[in-house]
Structures are given as structure tokens and as C-alpha cells.
């Protein structure tokens, strides 16, 4: 499991709200006060994550033999790129340089992407389905902390991600060879820890005290619940 050690400044007062997204989770409001990150940190991470999802999906196109699957991967990659560009536009609208805002997160998020890159294309497809799903949900939850800018980000993150076809590809592989079921289930469980570390690192405090943990737990419980439903959709145990 990868450990992430980069520091975040704490704003004075912010509120974190968990919102429902599709069929995943119920609306939940949790007061995180100073735990939400600075807005530049939030935007920089969110934008660079989408760029990483685009790169990973694009890399999968060449080794995928079926033309229909190549098309599905290209659509999912294009959706991630559109989200990245939209988040970059939000950064520019605030008068900041997107490259400067994203650069502090390049190394840790690239390390995360390498750590969650599977040895086989199907594992990497599952990585995108799981990590992008969990982190989109998490950054969507954080969006309520940032006023009008947060509303812009929420609209971007809720746009169609075109990842449904990845589910179909993975299910077809599992149906054709049952050995994929246990292998992908194991891989999916490994992904959770690394992804939750990324989310926790974004909260501005590496070590949470007992009171902070109590406020964080419901959010991560929702994220884990959504993860379990995504895995169940594939016929896999979370």
C-alpha cells in the first residue's frame, strides 16, 4: 500500500457534504470545519486526477484487440479529458495558472496512478472504474465547501463519464473465464486502501484526532458503500 505525505493548509471554516450520485449512497451532511483543503489544492488535485484517468484509459486502447472495446475505451478517455479541461477552465476563471495549480500534485498522483496500474489490461480497467468512481464521489462531496466554484465543479463531476462500457467488458471477461472473478475481486480490494489514502490526504491533516475521525467516518463509510455496489455490479465481492 502506498503512503502519501504532502501537507495542506487548513482554511478557517468549511463544510463537507456528501451528495448522492446516481444509485450510489444517500444524501448525508457532515461538518468537517477546517478539514476541507484550500480551494487551489482542491481544484489542482481534481483536475490532475482527471488527466491521469485520461492517460490510463488512453494507454489501454492499443493493447485491446476488439474494435468495439477500443471505441468504448476512447469514449471513457474522452469523457475524462473533457472533465479535466472543464476543471482547467474553472482554474483559469479564478485568475490562476492551471499548470502552477496542478504541479504540486503531479508526483504524488502519478505515484498513485502507477501503484493502481494492473499487470493486465483488465486489472487496469477495474482500477479506473473503482478509483475514478470513489474519487469522483469524494471530490463531489467536497464541492459543497466552495460556494459558486464548488457548484461548477459539481456539475463537471456529475457529467457522463462513459465508463458503463468498462463494466460490460469486465463482466464479459468474468463470464468467459471464472478465474477472472477471484483475481479481479482481490485486485479491487487492494485498490480501496490506496484510494482512501488519496482522499484522506486531501483533507489537510495527515493524522486525525478522535473528534476529527468521528466526522470523517460517515463520509468514508459512504464511499465504501458505493464501492461495494460497484463491485456487486460486476458480480465481485468487495
Structure description:
With 238 residues, the protein is an all-alpha fold. It has one domain: Up-down Bundle (Ferritin). It has nine helices and two strands, in the order ββααααααααα. It has a two-stranded antiparallel sheet. Helix 1 runs antiparallel to helix 5, helix 2 runs antiparallel to helix 6 and helix 5 runs antiparallel to helix 6. The chain is globular. The N terminus is likely disordered.
Outline the secondary-structure elements.
Layout: E1 16-18, E2 28-30, H1 39-61, H2 67-93, H3 98-102, H4 106-115, H5 121-142, H6 147-157, H7 164-176, H8 179-201, H9 210-233
Antiparallel strand pairs: 1-2
Q: Into which percentage range does the β-strand content fall?
A: under 5%
Radius of gyration: 17 Å
Helix count from the secondary structure assignment? 9
Instruction: Summarize model confidence as the mean pLDDT.
Output: 84
Spans with pLDDT under 50 lasting ≥5 residues? Answer: 1-31
Give the strand line-up of the largest sheet.
Answer: 1-2
Q: What is the tally of beta strands?
A: 2
CATH class: Mainly Alpha
Quick structural gist:
The chain has a single domain (16-233), classed as Ferritin (Up-down Bundle), CATH 1.20.1260. The radius of gyration is 17 Å and the shape is globular. Helix 5 runs antiparallel to helix 7 (164-176).
Amino acid at each position: 500500500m502506498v503512503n502519501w505525505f504532502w501537507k495542506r493548509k487548513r482554511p478557517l471554516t468549511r463544510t463537507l457534504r456528501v451528495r448522492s450520485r446516481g444509485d450510489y449512497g444517500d444524501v448525508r451532511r457532515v461538518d468537517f470545519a477546517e478539514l476541507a483543503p484550500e480551494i487551489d489544492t482542491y481544484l489542482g488535485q481534481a483536475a490532475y486526477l482527471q488527466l491521469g484517468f485520461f492517460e490510463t484509459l488512453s494507454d489501454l486502447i492499443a493493447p485491446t484487440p476488439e474494435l468495439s472495446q477500443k471505441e468504448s475505451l476512447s469514449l471513457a478517455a474522452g469523457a475524462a479529458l473533457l472533465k479535466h479541461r472543464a476543471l482547467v477552465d474553472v482554474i483559469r476563471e479564478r485568475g490562476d495558472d492551471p499548470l502552477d495549480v496542478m504541479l504540486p500534485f503531479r508526483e504524488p498522483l502519478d505515484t498513485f496512478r502507477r501503484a493502481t496500474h494492473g499487470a493486465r489490461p483488465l486489472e487496469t480497467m477495474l482500477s479506473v472504474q473503482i478509483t475514478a468512481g470513489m474519487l469522483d464521489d469524494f471530490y463531489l462531496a467536497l464541492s459543497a465547501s466552495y460556494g459558486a466554484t464548488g457548484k461548477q465543479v459539481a456539475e463537471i463531476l456529475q457529467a457522463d463519464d462513459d465508463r458503463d462500457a468498462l463494466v460490460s467488458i469486465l463482466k464479459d471477461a468474468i463470464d468467459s473465464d471464472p478465474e477472472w472473478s477471484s483475481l479481479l475481486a482481490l485486485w479491487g480490494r487492494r485498490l480501496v486502501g490506496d484510494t482512501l489514502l488519496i482522499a484522506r490526504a486531501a483533507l489537510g491533516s495527515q493524522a486525525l484526532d478522535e473528534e476529527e475521525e468521528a466526522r470523517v467516518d460517515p463520509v468514508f463509510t459512504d464511499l465504501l458503500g458505493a464501492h461495494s455496489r460497484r463491485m456487486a455490479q460486476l458480480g465481485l465481492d468487495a
